[in-house]
Design brief:
The complex is a heterodimer of chains A (582) and B (221).
Chain A lengths: L1 H14 L1 E4 H11 L4 E4 L6 H7 L7 E4 L3 H15 L3 E5 L3 H4 L2 H9 L4 E7 L15 H5 L5 E5 L5 H13 L5 E7 H5 L1 E4 L19 H13 L3 E5 L2 H4 L3 H11 L3 E3 L14 E4 L6 H7 L4 E5 L5 H4 L10 E6 L13 E4 L2 H11 L6 H23 L8 H12 L4 E4 L3 H9 L8 E2 L10 H11 L5 E6 H4 L6 H7 L4 E6 L4 H10 L14 H7 L3 E5 L2 H13 L4 E6 L27
Parallel strand pairs in A: 2-3, 2-4, 4-5, 5-7, 6-7, 9-10, 9-12, 10-11, 12-13, 13-14, 15-16, 15-17, 17-18, 18-20, 19-20
Antiparallel strand pairs in A: 1-8
Helix pairs in contact in A: 2-3, 2-8, 4-6, 4-19, 10-15, 12-15, 13-16, 17-18, 17-24
Chain B lengths: L2 E2 L24 E10 L4 H11 L4 E8 L5 E10 L1 H13 L3 E8 L3 E12 H6 L3 H8 L2 E5 L3 E8 L1 H12 L5 E4 L3 E4 L5 H9 L23
Antiparallel strand pairs in B: 1-5, 2-4, 2-5, 3-4, 6-8, 6-9, 6-10, 7-8
Classes of the chains: A alpha/beta (582), B alpha+beta (221).
The structure holds thiamine diphosphate (TPP).
Chain lengths: 582, 221
């Protein structure tokens, strides 16, 4: 008996190792199945980088050219893979360079774990070299953050970080680790994944009563209308969603983050919502009798003026985040829960229907929109290339199978409007924050998240110049990203607003570009610039079939606009098809 | 009308009854928000930011350990519309380390504030009726030096305010008032709820429909 106890003890101590805090960080990443880290070193995170040297066979590290690039790459990785993105940065300026990406990830619910170095604990609060109060700066833009000053906390804190980032409504988490904690040796007892935090309940219990009420409303509805967001992708509920709308014969429209959750050509897919969305879904929002919102948060870019939004409709809101329910639009029936669970419950209770007449209304509107807007955008008769036709040809060549990453501006709206997708997690864009400079680094990350897929980044001439230094990352790590710059020689979206709402006073939107092809060449990336329609297909084809990354600049109409548009301060039904209607 | 704000239970806006409810010029009410949290560095600023971001002025904020080990309790007083308060409380409750948030109007609470008054001893000593004064306001003397005397009283804002006026006549040197501490009248207490937080799975106690007609008492996480 006694010897047995001693043996048990020996076994226990044998599993305890003396390791450093920085090793514990990397052990945690390995245990969480992390394969890729995006980061940039510096003094305060050097112990972690030193340990990383020994983990080269288990953890790939991508050295970006700027921490903002690192975090956007982490976002792209997370969005294309459905996993948690991991980012390293040093203290002070390294950490503050993450802030834009944190804000972006926070509002777009992107799961990230960012690890920043921090000065020695005894220097905290002394204005030490590269000391910045990272925790307080990042508090409003993280789902959770924590400062580690003692190595023994590391396994537990990182386990918590991954759990919080990935569960419930996902989001970015930042762990700031002081240098002494990274260097400190301690008795490491292994890594235990976290699956419970007392004060955190990521998954609510679904209340059947509300599901029943929702089903009843749907069954009674004459003109039901589904609007869906990224919640479906984050909840991995694409199949459940399709089953739901197919049984109910429910027309469904998407927010830009919901795009690709349902294939573009699905007969029940009726288009894009919001400011530059399709005419039908916007107008008919104000004609439906039951509005079923799934995993979306009624952003003001989607709703336009709230007091003119869907006033006639009973609203069913499915969301995992209780704070979203009733935040902007009051729900008649809230279905609080994970849509992976709630959708099948609803599907079971709804009647099989087809709502043929109602759905044909969407098609009527699309015909009208095609006549006034889409026809000229996709098949222009003028000499200059339009953004829309670039996307149209891209669709033909990729067959809707590429991951498309967009930056922010007119090209983003045009791409989201016209790009076709066959699979989920294919549309990666900065939705809630609208962060210019997002696309190039996010595309790099997206390629690491889904290496087998073609990744095409579509970027404006303005946004490209915000993070073009990441061409260096592409060069060094041989990342295969196809880059299309849609060059209209303007900060196009701002110019459009100035044209429509500021009497064409084009204040500082005229932006000149470098010779992008020469620039790409300097980074050993092949490229080409075109301005003629007759070269478009061939150029896109060359780009797509090229082995490795490629930069294609397309010169497009300087003063083309994106329509339809819900002008600021108007209701969704007041959407306009051209500037003459303004 | 005690409200929990983490759920779908409180979707109806109920206008609080009159009585002690304080309504300001803009029609906003005085609300007391009670937040139960883990004892964690940084949480104060995380919670404070939620108010400042929305440009809501905090009238008073008290934080202290609760009767339960390692659980802290914030008591925050603001003037706001109920709709805003409810949304705000949901956002606060979303924070990882926050266990529970309640909000209440004044008629649903018993609350107190502590006030201290420093008055010149010379003048006070000359006033014969000081004893009656103290009795009338329920105040106590807590320090006397030859230069000054410090009085203490607890009560609602109006009560402690009244004593400022009185002492004002006698050369009040300094005055300070604490944040509000409050206890919700109609509540079985947070204690019971905590058991359910301690459970690893959202408790069996919380079975679907059973609680649906007990809106205010239901634990919704
Ligand atoms: C970081 C950042 N700064 C400013 C803006 C404001 N903004 C939105 S769209 C836009 C113009 C974008 O121009 P460009 O990248 O050339 O794309 P285009 O609209 O021409 O397609 C600007 C400046 C922004 N969204 N993000």
């Amino acid at each position: 008996m006694e010897t047995l106890e001693i043996k048990e003890k020996e076994k226990a101590t044998a599993s305890i190792q003396n390791i450093s805090g920085s090793q514990a960080v990397l052990e945690a990443l390995v245990a969480e199945n992390v394969d890729t880290i995006f980061g940039y070193p510096g003094g305060a995170i050097m112990p972690i980088y030193d340990s990383l040297y020994d983990y080269a066979d288990k953890l790939k590290h991508i050295l970006v050219r700027h921490e903002q690039g690192g975090i956007h790459a982490g976002q792209g990785y997370a969005r294309s893979s459905g996993k948690v993105g991991v980012v390293f940065a040093t203290s002070g300026p390294g950490a503050t360079n993450l802030v834009t990406g944190l804000a972006d990830a926070m509002i777009d619910s992107t799961p990230l774990v960012c690890i920043t170095g921090q000065v020695f604990a005894h220097l905290l609060g002394t204005d030490a070299f590269q000391e910045v109060d990272v925790i307080n700066i990042t508090t409003p833009v993280t789902k959770w953050n924590y400062q580690v000053t003692d190595a023994t906390e590391i396994p537990g804190v990182l386990a918590k970080a991954f759990y919080i980032a990935a569960t419930g409504r996902p989001g970015p988490v930042l762990i700031d680790i002081t240098k002494n904690a990274q260097l400190q040796k301690f008795d490491y007892e292994g890594y235990k994944k976290c699956d419970h935090i007392r004060s955190y309940r990521p998954k609510p219990i679904v209340r059947k009563k509300y599901v029943e009420e929702a089903a009843k409303l749907i069954n009674e509805a004459k003109r039901p209308f589904v609007i869906f967001g990224q919640g479906i992708i984050l909840g991995k509920a694409e199949k459940e969603f399709k089953a739901f709308i197919e049984k109910g014969g429910l027309p469904a429209a998407w927010t830009i983050l919901g795009l690709s959750a349902l294939e573009t050509d699905h007969p029940l897919n009726v288009g894009m919502l919001g400011m530059h969305g399709n005419y039908g879904p916007n107008v008919l929002t104000n004609e439906c009798d039951v509005l079923i919102a799934v995993g979306m948060r009624f952003d003001d870019r989607v709703t336009g003026r709230l007091d003119k939004y869907a006033k006639q409709a009973k609203v069913i809101h499915l969301d995992i985040d209780p704070a979203e329910i009733d935040k902007n639009v009051k729900a008649t029936v809230p279905v609080w829960g994970d849509c992976k669970e709630t959708l099948p419950m609803l599907t079971k209770l709804i009647e099989k229907k087809n709502h043929k007449d109602w759905i044909s209304k969407f098609h009527e509107h699309i015909r009208k929109e095609a006549e006034v807007v889409i026809k000229d955008e996709l098949n222009p008769t003028g000499e200059v290339l339009t953004m829309g036709e670039v996307i149209k040809v891209l669709n033909e060549l990729t067959d809707g199978n590429a991951i498309i990453v967009t930056d922010v501006g007119q090209h983003q709206m045009v791409t989201c409007r016209y790009a076709k997708f066959n699979q989920s997690k294919s549309n990666i864009t900065s939705g809630g924050a609208g962060t210019m400079g997002f696309a190039l680094p996010a595309a790099i990350g997206a390629k690491y998240g889904a290496p087998e897929r073609t990744v095409v980044a579509i970027i404006g001439d303005g946004g490209f110049q915000m993070t073009l230094q990441e061409l260096g990352t592409i060069m060094q790590f041989d990342v295969d990203v196809k880059i299309i710059i849609l060059n209209n020689q303007f900060l196009g979206m701002v110019r459009q607003w100035q044209q429509l709402f500021h009497e064409k006073r084009y204040s500082f939107v005229d932006i000149t570009s470098p010779d992008y092809i020469q620039l790409a060449k300097a980074y050993k990336i092949e490229g080409r610039s075109i301005c003629k329609r007759e070269h478009l297909k061939n150029a896109l084809n060359t780009m797509l079939t090229h082995k490795g990354s490629y930069l294609l600049e397309v010169m497009v109409g300087k003063e083309n606009n994106v329509f339809p548009m819900v002008p600021q301060g108007r209701g969704v039904a007041e959407i306009i098809l051209s500037k003459e209607e303004l | 009308m005690s409200k929990e704000n983490n759920g779908i239970e409180n979707l109806d806006i109920t206008t609080p009854p009159g009585g002690h409810v304080v309504v300001d010029k803009s029609g906003k009410l005085e609300f007391t928000i009670t937040v139960y949290t883990e004892n964690q560095v940084g949480l104060l600023s995380r919670i404070a930011i939620m108010f400042s971001r929305r440009k809501i002025n905090v009238e008073s904020l008290n934080t202290s350990p609760s009767e339960i080990e390692n659980i802290h309790r914030f008591t925050i007083v603001i003037n706001e519309y109920e709709d805003v308060v409810r949304k705000l409380c949901r956002q606060i409750e979303k924070q990882v380390e926050v266990l529970k948030v309640y909000y209440n109007t004044n008629d649903e609470l018993v609350w107190q504030e502590v006030a201290l008054y420093k008055v010149p001893t010379g003048i006070i000593a000359d006033i014969v009726k000081v004893e009656r004064l103290l009795r009338q306001f329920g105040a106590r003397v807590i320090a006397i030096t030859k230069d000054y005397t410090i009085f203490e009283t607890t009560g609602h804002r109006e009560e402690t305010d009244r004593l400022i006026k009185v002492f004002g006549q006698f050369g009040l040197i300094e005055f300070v008032r604490s944040a509000r501490v409050a206890i919700i009248k109609d509540s079985s207490g947070f204690h019971e709820k905590l058991r359910q937080f301690e459970a690893r799975e959202p408790g069996e106690d919380v079975i679907e429909n059973e609680y649906l007609n007990q809106q205010d008492h239901i634990f919704t996480m």
